[in-house]
UniProtKB/TrEMBL annotation:
Gene label: hemL
Reactions that this protein is recorded to catalyse: (S)-4-amino-5-oxopentanoate = 5-aminolevulinate
Pathway this chain belongs to: Porphyrin-containing compound metabolism; protoporphyrin-IX biosynthesis; 5-aminolevulinate from L-glutamyl-tRNA(Glu): step 2/2
Name of the protein in question: Glutamate-1-semialdehyde 2,1-aminomutase
Modified residues (N6-(pyridoxal phosphate)lysine): 270
Length: 433
């Protein structure tokens, strides 16, 4: 497989951008080799600058629920662009997208922003403003974007690159961040016993997906919701990754909706932007109305609610019907079976975990992973060997063992089976690593 064009672009990129990328995990640091510079995408497939084609199991890290360049999304976006790309005024598409989000989830009001990072950053500011308290509880291995206060023991690229803390984040900024082990209700109780009247909020991924997929143990999120309510703290579920992906509304639909609890605030991103920079945070009206211009908590954005981005998100969500989620669940199940059968056949110890339609594989472990320590016990060398064998076979997996695998409604294991069938062939490489 020729990589000449990607290599040339990477060399040029490194001259003008740190590490040659605009987001660290894309640089293939953890897995080595040349990152593929993608030139186009269509449905389940990506084509790189050398003309190589890959079945895409990253989906832009989650947004591409319908696959790349879905004709109806492209048409709607093209029409929106022709009407003008940004007005700096309110416009109809953002109202329609907000209505769609409010219709699907338990939030009553949403404020749109441009990235998941902004969504969690703003949600925490609002929680602090609402409660008049400073402390924030987060869980190790959960990633909420590169918000200063939340870059403590974070997952995603922070763990992939083995970065212990982040220079540039002053100690006093994380001094109010309490980091607890995931899925450990006793640790939560102990923290609230000590700091209960100082905690503004608990933020958690609705189902952790940034240390590999680690779903909450049954009752864990309900416990967080209850403890927060008892102590006057807000419960924030970060659904940037899981929202409109794990299920139609998000992971809450599988968890809170059935167990009978609601988060105070939620954050969204990825799918709701349809591949454009759009994200949001939302919650109960009495909390959200503390935001400017109604209330005193300031938050703003030049491109927030951008008409092109919100059109892409709205069109994506409207096309994401219950049938789409059924199909996604079926496809996800098929691919999960392909992987587990092949791994079992090759005698590679592994644990496959899922949260709704999302899943990931932990290599070299044999018991369920419930927290960050368990996730870090995996054999990343085996994943690296597997990753490269699959890349050579035409399957684009996340270039890190700590990430979820994302499918789209455009994936069809029948049609894409030629590269996917190489899963079995790629496994001996992993077994040898
Ligand atoms: N929260 C979660 C759960 C995420 O997975 C991510 C991104 N992977 C973020 C927040 C940050 O989103 P963004 O990269 O758009 O800033």
């Amino acid at each position: 497989m020729s990589t000449t064009a990607s290599e040339a672009l990477f060399a040029r990129a490194k001259q003008v951008s740190p590490g040659g990328v605009n987001s660290p995990v894309r640089a293939f640091r953890a897995v080595g080799g040349t990152p593929r510079f993608m030139a186009s995408g269509s449905g389940a497939w990506l084509t790189d600058a050398d003309g190589n084609r890959f079945v895409d199991l990253v989906g832009s890290w989650g947004p591409m629920l319908l696959g790349h360049a879905h004709p109806e999304v492209v048409e709607a976006v093209t029409a929106a662009v022709a009407r003008g790309t940004s007005f700096g005024t309110p416009a109809e598409p953002e109202v329609l997208l907000a209505e769609e989000i409010v219709g699907r989830t338990p939030v009553e009001r949403v404020r749109m922003v441009s990235s998941g990072t902004e969504a969690t950053m703003s949600a925490i500011r609002l929680a602090r403003g609402f409660t008049g308290r400073d402390r924030v509880v987060k869980f190790s291995g959960c990633y909420h974007g590169h918000v200063d206060a939340l870059l403590a023991e974070a997952g995603s690229g922070v763990v992939t690159l083995g970065i212990p803390g982040t220079p540039g984040v002053p100690a006093h900024v994380t001094a109010d961040t309490i980091v607890l082990p995931y899925n450990d209700p006793a640790a939560v109780d102990a923290a609230f016993e000590q700091y209960g009247d100082q905690i503004a909020c608990v933020i958690t991924e609705a189902a952790a997906g940034n240390m590999g997929v680690v779903p909450p143990q049954p009752g864990f999120n309900a416990h967080l919701s209850r403890v927060c309510a008892e102590h006057g703290a807000l419960f924030i579920t970060d659904e940037v990754m899981t929202g409109f992906r794990a299920a139609r509304s998000g992971f809450w639909e599988i968890d809170g909706a059935t167990e009978g609890w609601q988060p105070d605030l939620m954050t969204f991103g990825k799918v709701m932007g349809g591949g454009f920079p759009a994200a949001a945070f939302g919650g109960r009206a009495e909390i959200m109305d503390l935001l400017a211009p109604v209330g005193p908590v300031y938050q703003a954005g030049t491109l927030s609610g951008n008409p092109v981005a919100t059109t892409a998100g709205l069109t994506t969500l409207r096309l994401a019907t219950p049938e789409v989620y059924e199909r996604l669940a079926a496809t996800s199940g098929q691919v999960q079976k392909l992987v587990t059968d092949a791994l079992a056949e090759a005698g590679v110890p592994h644990v496959l975990q899922s949260a709704g339609t999302m899943f990931s594989v932990f290599w070299g472990v044999s018991t369920p992973v419930i927290d960050f320590a368990g996730a870090q016990a995996q054999d990343t060398a085996a994943y690296t060997a597997f990753f490269h064998a699959m890349l050579d076979a035409g399957v684009y997996l996340p270039p890190s063992a700590y990430e979820a695998w994302f499918l789209s409604a455009a994936h069809d294991p029948e049609v894409d089976s030629e590269p996917l069938s190489r899963l079995a062939e790629a496994l001996p490489a992993a077994a040898r690593a």
